[in-house]
Amino acid sequence: MSIAVRYYSRGGNTKKLAKAVEEAIEIPALSIDEALAEKVDTLLLGCSYYAFDMDQKVKEFITENKDKIGKIVLFGTSAMMKSMKKPLKKQLQNMKVDIEIAEEEFHCAGSFKFMHKGRPNDEDIEAVKAFAKKIAEK
């Protein structure tokens, strides 16, 4: 199974998770500024909610790479929301693209202003590493 790791992070929280994923499965975690070089079976995509939606840059990355993605496995942080599946599903429907969204998803609190200070913490980092290893073993 071929795997790629890409992420988008404004404040650095999701980047911390992405670097932990990279360490766990020994696959480079690159910014979404790096297009996929070839088709992958699984894209581990790190992103978060911004104003109750996916950032436009993430939408553009998916649009530009849609023919190279077999399945998307999400991971990320947020101050309030628990899952990125709903905005991702909406984006794929708007694009009329049939990319599988994995049931598995890793999400933890992320530090934002006065909320969730210190998150993601060491426990979150270890949890995302275990999550990534589980995905890579499939």
The computed structural class is alpha/beta
Distance between the termini: 8 Å
The biggest sheet amounts to: 5 strands, parallel
SSE succession:
EHEEHEHEH
Q: Helical stretch count?
A: 4
Instruction: Tell how many strands the DSSP assignment holds.
Output: 5
Low-confidence stretches: none
Radius of gyration (CA) equals 14 Å
Q: Strand portion, in percent?
A: 25-35%
Globular, elongated, flat, extended or rod-shaped: what is the shape?
globular
What order do the strands of the largest sheet run in, or round the barrel if closed? 2-1-3-4-5
Description of the structure:
By secondary structure, the chain is α/β, with parallel strands linked by helices. The chain has four helices and five strands, in the order E-H-E-E-H-E-H-E-H. It has helices spanning 13-25, 56-65, 85-95, 122-137, and strands spanning 3-7, 29-31, 40-46, 69-78, 100-109. It has a five-stranded parallel beta sheet, sandwiched between helices. Strand 1 (3-7), helix 1 (13-25) and strand 2 form a beta-alpha-beta unit. Helix 1 (13-25) packs across helix 4. The longest helix is centred in the C-terminal third of the chain and has 16 residues, at 122-137. The N and C termini lie close together (8 Å). 36% of the residues are buried. The mean pLDDT is 89.
